[in-house]
Specification:
Length: 193
């Protein structure tokens, strides 16, 4: 039932975007746009259902289940309110994109990826997978989730693992990083005080 609501929101969002494009399409153009929107919506529904099973070794501690049942709504609810997938992706990847530019000096556009030696726009699946990974990291990184630079660091490392085919190592990365930082905070607040 939840997926149907999300899908309906995405569908409405796509329809609003198409409707606000300027000139009014003719009857046959409107029919074609409607079929294209429905086809995209069907793909988005399939992608969301498939992506929610990518646990990246974060299923053991219940992180993936929490994200599936609660947290991912943060990303899908705006779609229900009529936002486009692109605008939701832009909003939730902005801290990382700024961090990439300012901390790493990356000039490349995160909204693009390299395929067969050429740059192309990210697909719907790419954007949904990015949002899913952000949600998993948000839940999995414990008390440090309110630290944008820390979240961006974890996302950067996790994206590298995922894109290299080592997504099953993401859970270990996140657990080792928050364990290390818990120790630092503990020592700072006790022994080193």
């Amino acid at each position: 039932h939840r997926r149907k609501k999300v899908a309906k929101g995405v569908e409405d969002s796509i329809a609003k975007t198409a409707a606000g494009s300027g000139s009014q399409p003719s009857g046959s153009q409107a029919g074609q746009e409607d079929r294209e929107n429905q086809a995209r919506m069907s793909r988005i529904r399939d992608i969301i259902a498939r992506v929610q099973h990518e646990e990246y070794d974060l299923g053991k501690d219940g992180t993936a289940k929490t994200v599936r049942e609660v947290t991912f709504q943060v990303f899908t609810d705006p779609l229900e309110r009529g936002e486009t997938l692109e605008s939701v992706w832009e909003k939730y990847t902005k801290p990382y994109r700024v961090w990439r530019k300012e901390v790493l000096g990356e000039a490349s556009d995160f909204s693009r990826k390299e395929v067969d030696g050429r740059e192309v726009e990210k697909t719907d699946e790419d954007m949904i997978r990015d949002l899913w990974l952000i949600a998993l990291i948000f839940v999995g990184c414990d008390i440090f989730r309110s630290t944008p630079d820390y979240m961006s660091f974890l996302l950067h490392k996790s994206l590298a693992l995922r894109d290299a085919g080592d997504g099953d190592k993401i859970g270990d990365l996140i657990r080792s990083e928050y364990t290390r930082w818990h120790k630092i905070v503990f020592l700072t607040n006790t022994t080193l005080k």
